[in-house]
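Researcher: I'd like a structural prediction for the single chain below. Treat it as a standalone chain; there are no partners to consider.
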Amino acid sequence: MFSLAALVLLASAPDASAWASKVQKAYEGLKDYSAGFEQQAILKTGPGPKATGKVYLAKPGKMRWEFESPDKKTVVSDGKTMWVYDPEENQVLVQEHLELSTSLTALNFLSGLGQLGKDFDVSPSAPRADASDPKAVFLSLKPKPTADVQLAEIVLEVDPRTSLANEVYLVDGLGNQTRLTFKSPQVNRGLKASTFTFTIPKDAEVINPTAVAPPKPK
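Model: Treating it as a single chain, here is the predicted structure.
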């Protein structure tokens, strides 16, 4: 028999299918998005590193992550090429031919929220003890066997007013988590194209493992 607590939990659980549709519709409608972010690693062994910065996204497949603390780092993609710049090491990692890949990773997962039904099985999730808004809607996204997702689970803390995620937990195959909290988000403000371009510093070391041959399209 169900306990009273279990029955109350079932009765109060959000309709995952309905909320998945709302979240998908909200992200499908995004032309661009920007926000401040806080990143906290939650390792199996305990709390891990923290980082803060700003994120900028635009369709199709464009992104810019500016890590500001504790160390500066820039990750930029125009949808075809990605640059990862470490100013302390004065080194740039270049990855080309992104348009040939459909893989969803910790960097581009937000773009995948516009295809929830295709890539994920969605179910209600219990509010996290450390969540920024315990009254938000919590959804667990687990990749379908056919999905090319480099994560074991994504937990969304969804703002009921906008159907966008204010906080996200990214879980890898070992159970380690990364919590991303988005602050002061701005939607469809018309980000400049230059936001998603990167000029390699003349004296920087360039590492380009994809320069030999492009990957085969899937």
